[in-house]
């Protein structure tokens, strides 16, 4: 776990203010504290040891860092966003969330930190004949195109589609990743090997300025 965190943090550099934060894989008992200046302290258990990561509003993140001031956040509803382990709110109107999901069904889930105001990322998914169709938006704007990795690399935004009850699936099975169009909409044909009882779409929230939009998920019956 220490190695995973060190690799993730080493590439953040000075662009941490505009990058989504991937904290760790397979984190247990995560916790979140935020001070009045917008510094976030994320902690979790790794092999019985509580690890910490300090995420300031701008600049470098600090492995092992702690808040120097009091925690001013209060609990918020966990059902505000999907896949949430912790959701909190600060007096300045920001919501903060630790969400956990795996990029592939057979991988350990990643713990990710989000920070935003207003409504969270919205994702829709419906079955239309032999196609899956949906749309991703945040703050009234489409989620599409590219975002930046913590190291500043441009990465295309993809909606990850999974099926359950499809041939060869033990739980959820990855179908494919599809890039949303300019208006945030997406669609994919359901191949015979993907015909199932349920379908799932997941998208990472976009990075806009100092906002780290929360990740979103939608499920539809086949």
Structure description:
The chain is mainly beta. It folds into 2 domains: 2-116, no CATH class; 122-221, Immunoglobulin-like. It is 4% helix and 48% strand. It has 1 helix and 21 strands. The protein has one helix spanning 2-10; strands at 21-25, 28-34, 40-46, 49-55, 62-63, 74-75, 84-89, 95-101, 110-116, 122-128, 131-138, 141-142, 146-148, 154-156, 159-164, 172-178, 185-189, 198-203, 207-208, 211-212, 216-221. It starts with a helix and ends with a strand. The model is unreliable at 1-19 (pLDDT under 50).
List the helices and strands and how they pair.
Elements lengths: L1 H9 L10 E5 L2 E7 L5 E7 L2 E7 L6 E2 L10 E2 L8 E6 L5 E7 L8 E7 L5 E7 L2 E8 L2 E2 L3 E3 L5 E3 L2 E6 L7 E7 L6 E5 L8 E6 L3 E2 L2 E2 L3 E6 L1
Antiparallel strand pairs: 1-9, 2-3, 3-4, 4-5, 6-7, 7-8, 8-9, 10-11, 11-12, 11-17, 13-14, 15-16, 15-18, 18-21, 19-20
Keyword list:
Immunoglobulin-like; five-stranded antiparallel sheet; 21 strands; four-stranded antiparallel sheet; 2 domains; mainly beta; disordered N terminus; 4% helix; 222 residues
Oligomer: single chain
Q: What is the N-to-C succession of helices and strands?
A: HEEEEEEEEEEEEEEEEEEEEE
Strand order of the largest sheet: 1-9-8-7-6
**What is the percent of helical residues?**
under 10%
Low-confidence stretches: 1-19
Give the distance, in angstroms, between the N- and C-terminal Cα atoms.
38 Å
Describe the sheet with the most strands. 5 strands, antiparallel
Instruction: Choose one word for the global shape.
Output: globular
What is the count of structural domains?
Answer: 2
Total number of strands: 21
Tell me, rounded to a whole number, the average pLDDT.
87
Class derived from helix and strand content: mainly beta
